[in-house]
């Protein structure tokens, strides 16, 4: 039985651009530099990869909103894509049916339709049984190929609930109400057998369904710190006959284990456990016909797989030898002859079809195809024994080409960056592209990058979490020193050439390391960290039982003494190494005042540091311009003190919204930065909004930045005016990839534009409107819009010179009043 677990929410845009190669300023790594722009403008561009039940087709999702499409391709014929355009589906609203067709929701006017389409067909069947507001495709079964379980929300009791939909008859029969259940599990007869329901303990209750339709609790959970990253309790599968439920559970255990529940009587028995880490319910190999789990996995620096059916071991052993990374099994054909797999290694994720009888891999695609021509770092497990004997499941990245004999060690010890993640309790982040792209950038610049995993982190058992209690500036700190020393001892890090860098808790850990062990690292970078634990723990966010237990009790004299002892703000005098600081002005998790107070101490002590912040950024930066400008500065910083490579800075700081506070390090990137005047900055931020809306494929978002009576004037003087025309113009763009807007000059009068050398040099000038708003900002710029051609799917760029007139609307928001453009020449 194929269980489908998704939410109602629409996903964020996954899109991308083509990277180019650049030259380093001084030290050149073995491979060409990956441009910052290519890493931070977009997230990964492919998601929700699914294989048809017969294993002959693969489908995946690109984009969001107006740019969403499902791409279908033969499993063994890459490049022969059949594209299906869908208006705004979510990850949970499309799936394969057992007859190897796609079932999906499509927007029809103001309502939804349930559609089915086979890859070979140009026609889609409307299977909508009745009008509904939202739907979730829940499950299908090889034993009932003409039916599917689906949940509807319609606003009325008759059509609200769980239904079995006949794909042939287009009829739906109700089998149950929602009853506040969040996840539902079926057997091969499509009988509802188990569910989870949110409870009052900030967790969930696991339920089994009796033959008379009553829900009976199997386990009732309470929120705890080991649930902070990936909930250890989760349903693995239901047997085909509906008599057995398998689930992971940490109740009464140190780590999450696999348990089996007899759904007829509720008896529960432990079946499988991992000695080092939680078993992941999401990482189970489930037999496609019986529904029984055959293997589960945990992660301790690398995937560790545990078998209930050892016949699978030879497959995974062979797969492990074929490619760098941890094997992740995503789907299996009904006859089990084909597997959809991927390799997780901190780089763009490569997908393959595994032909089991032949033991052959068929390559499909990566989820970041714009990086297919680039060389990525390799990831390696790195278990470290702390000074008190605790095993720490670290791993590290090596630059491409630095390990010529393939033994997992660099040919020579490298300058190294120790990365300390945030949380600090959050685990299971090793494959998060938001993080790993940063590590790939550093490795590409010639550094070994060590991911420090320290005590207190979830997913390695409750004892591992508890080992970090009240140890922020104690054993959690010495863990980092032990990891850095082990990296040097192993030959990864060059002696005396290790930097430390991190955000949130990692920012704190960096400050603590520089203050408590000033000789351990050559330099440090802290991003939006905590430096005064006493003041931080008085904030509503941190004034709770968890923080008092794990960090220190700010309401007792003993607790305050510990918090002060562990706060680097009180030990600024010990910091002697170069230090780079940054923060977000809208950070509600760790206030800007935390970094301000540390910087004040550094400033008073005459320390060598630089500090800038982003006034509009929250905790964890969101804008690509922020990340690009941060790394433009940080690369120069690391190059100066570690000796790696750096991509030359361009106008990245000017394109971002940042405030420079201190530059005692005299970093050239910051020395050369000139804060733009208010008008230029306003227009630059508006251009960022246009660019980012286009990159999200939010074409209506682009149009909404135009006034209702805006004019679009094409090169030959053709004028398009008004909201309807503007919306139609921008929404007509297909397959956008990238949009770059260069701000050449900004003025309060149009004469300032016309006197600019760029305008005077234009042989073909944008046509001018007949009239102008009474209050306006005038912009001269150049636009480069890159999109994929419909006929060839190849990238194509359209370059125009443009003249924009921005005017405030009645709410004071700047909107485009005039957009005049002409094809760029030269």
Mean pLDDT: 91
Q: Which strand order spans the largest sheet, edge to edge or round the barrel?
A: 29-30-32-31-33-34-35-36-37
The largest β sheet comes out as:
9 strands, mixed
Rg, nearest Å? 28 Å
Query: Might you state the CATH topology name of one domain?
Result: Rossmann fold
Task: Characterize the structure shown.
The protein has 826 residues and is an alpha+beta fold. Among the domains are: 378-532 and 567-671, Alpha/Beta hydrolase fold, catalytic domain (Rossmann fold), CATH 3.40.50.1820; 678-823, Roll (Nuclear Transport Factor 2, Chain: A), CATH 3.10.450.50. It contains 18 helices and 43 strands. The protein has a nine-stranded mixed beta sheet with strand order 29-30-32-31-33-34-35-36-37, sandwiched between helices. Strands 39-38-43-42-41-40 form a six-stranded mixed beta sheet. It has a five-stranded antiparallel beta sheet with strand order 1-10-11-12-13, with no helix packed on it. The longest helix is centred in the last third of the chain and has 19 residues, at 624-642. The radius of gyration is 28 Å and the shape is globular. Mean pLDDT is 91; it is low at 5-29.
Keywords:
single chain, 826 residues, alpha+beta, Rossmann fold, Nuclear Transport Factor 2, Chain: A, nine-stranded mixed sheet, six-stranded mixed sheet, 18 helices, 43 strands, globular
